[in-house]
Design brief:
The chain is α/β, with parallel strands linked by helices and 324 residues long. The protein has one domain: Carbamate kinase (3-Layer(aba) Sandwich). The protein contains nine helices and 17 strands. Helix 8 runs antiparallel to helix 9. It is globular. GO terms for molecular function: carbamate kinase activity.
């Protein structure tokens, strides 16, 4: 029997909820609850690659960097190492919780976490306009000092008056360096956890040596690239809403359960989806379909098992009657 291959991107709320402080007990409980919803995909015969975000976690690592330097004169690590640290820690947690979930359901599968370096173009336009906020909040004086001392760039925090946060570029992912290994392992039936936090951003110099950049790659765009690169059939983004909504939060709000490529692109281009929330996820889904994927799905993790939930994006409508 030919098994289908799915890439499942776990959103930040899969590990940490907004009202939580981030203890390991909270994260392990949330992770377990999320992974329970993937069991039915395994039972239906899917091979799985799991990707994940790292926003709160890598932010905490950066703040531990700052505290260690200030209090104990510990040399701080660069952003690429911090992303790698988060991949290791989160990957380990997902792997351990997934082993326990599979043990509960009497499913025998190997699971492995894979560090992932993702290449970007060092001349990407994103490097001219850093926009991704990371790390702790600073006052203006401290932000100016760090700008002079370390060359960091800062922008005002939209949530805190008079506060500033460091910003870094968010370039477009080009290639996942170990995609062939990932493909081989998942096609052999192993569950692979990889591309955490969008991957560790790197580039290849003129001699093809791997070099690093201070940047953060969008997790969903890297997940879509990985899904296309390894020939996945389906791409799932698990978030905190059960559907895509047109005009979300407005009186004209409308659930969009089925979409084809052209209609989704139209909605995106006219600003239907929020740039700070749903629009990047939509772009990732469209990129996967554009590169030959069969179906993208955006839904809440707890609704994944119920196929009456979730917004499905395909190249063409499966049934012309569902077209808007």
């Amino acid at each position: 029997m030919t098994r289908k291959l799915a890439v499942v991107a776990l959103g930040g709320n899969a590990l940490l909820r907004d009202n939580e402080v981030g203890t390991i007990e909270e994260q392990e409980r949330n992770t377990t609850e999320t992974l329970e919803n993937l069991v039915h995909l395994i039972r239906e015969g899917y091979n799985l690659v799991i990707t994940h975000g790292n926003g709160p976690q890598v932010g905490n690592i950066l703040m531990r960097n700052d505290a260690g330097e200030a209090m104990y004169n510990i040399a701080p690590m660069p952003l690429d190492v911090c992303v790698a640290d988060s991949q290791g820690g989160i990957g380990y947690m997902i792997e351990r919780m997934m082993r326990n979930v599979l043990n509960k359901h009497k499913i025998d599968k190997n699971i492995i976490s894979v560090m992932s370096m993702v290449t970007v173009d060092p001349d990407d336009e994103a490097f001219q306009n850093p926009s991704k906020r990371i790390g702790k909040i600073y006052n203006e004086t401290d932000a100016n000092q760090l700008c002079q001392l370390k060359g960091w760039q800062f922008k005002p925090s939209p949530k805190h008056a008079g506060a500033f946060r460091r910003v870094v570029p968010s370039p477009t992912p080009i290639d996942i360096l170990n995609q062939e290994i990932i493909a081989n392992m998942v096609n052999e039936g192993n569950i692979v956890i990889t591309a955490g936090g969008g991957g560790i951003p790197v580039y290849l110099d003129e001699e093809q040596n791997v070099r690093t950049v201070d940047a953060v790659i969008d997790k969903d765009m890297t997940s879509a690239l990985l899904a296309s690169s390894i020939g996945a059939d389906e791409f799932y983004i698990l978030t905190d809403v059960p559907y895509i909504f047109k005009d979300f939060g407005l009186p004209t709000q409308e659930k969009l359960e089925f979409l084809n490529y052209n209609d989704t692109l139209h909605y995106l281009n006219i600003g239907t989806f929020g740039e700070g929330s749903m629009a990047p996820k939509i772009r990732a889904c469209l990129k996967f379909i554009e590169n030959g994927g069969q179906k993208s799905v955006i839904t809440e993790a707890t609704k994944l098992v119920d196929k009456s939930f979730g917004s499905k994006i395909t190249l063409e409508y499966d049934n012309k009657k569902i077209a808007p």
